[in-house]
Design brief:
This protein is an alpha/beta fold. Helices cover 43% and strands 15% of the residues. The radius of gyration is 16 Å and the shape is globular. The structure holds uracil (URA).
């Protein structure tokens, strides 16, 4: 199966209740031969509306980190989530919630196959839930960030979720600097030259 075939399966998925409230399936996007794969938790409202991962406010910050920080087009990396459909309490209230364990379980084969097909040099987990899922740990993100883990022999760098950075000061936050320190380690490991920062 190639990534397009996997995507076609995901687009038609009805394995969990999120299929009944989603507008679109947010499969993930990027270079199928990406050196770096970012993994978030699940789509929000903007992602659900557009079918693309990380395109809301948090996505804008992630895109800046990739394009301005790493100096590569966003289309060079691969961006995915643990669950491919927006977990929402109630469409009318437009309120998001974390995915339930059975929703994560139903969606897991999609992410595992994405990782297998893309076979990145490095995985970056964004935030606690994604890090816990990939590394199978209960440890919090503050302890784990900046330290290498491993998933199926692929180096994993946990870092803060861009939403968390935004809630705590955004671009001027010390957390933003921490993320950049983590990303520099990722680039070194993935063999991507670190551009001079302005
Ligand atoms: N937050 C996530 O974890 N994933 C997205 O795609 C958007 C926001």
């Amino acid at each position: 199966m190639n990534i397009e075939e996997l995507k076609a399966t995901a687009m038609a998925c009805k394995l969990c209740r999120l299929a009944t409230t989603r507008k679109t399936v947010v499969f993930g996007e990027g270079n199928p031969n990406a050196k770096v794969m970012f993994i978030g938790e699940g789509p929000g409202a903007t992602e659900d509306a557009t079918g693309r991962p990380f395109v809301g406010r948090a996505g804008e910050l992630l895109t800046r980190i990739i394009e301005k920080g790493m100096g590569v087009p966003r289309s060079e990396v691969y961006i995915a989530n643990i669950v491919k459909c927006r977990p929402t309490v109630n469409q009318e209230m437009k309120k998001d919630r974390p995915p339930e364990p059975d929703e994560v379980e139903a969606c897991t084969p999609f992410l595992l196959n994405q990782i297998k097909l893309i076979s990145p040099r490095v995985i970056v987990t964004l935030g606690g839930p994604s890090t816990k899922f990939i590394l199978g740990t209960k440890e919090g993100i503050t302890k784990l960030r900046g330290k290498w883990g491993e998933f199926q022999s692929i180096p994993v760098m946990p870092t803060y979720h861009p939403s968390y950075v935004l809630r705590n000061g955004g671009d001027k936050s010390p957390l933003r600097r921490d993320v950049w320190e983590d990303i520099k380690l990722v680039m070194e490991r993935a063999g991507i030259p670190i551009p001079p920062q302005s």
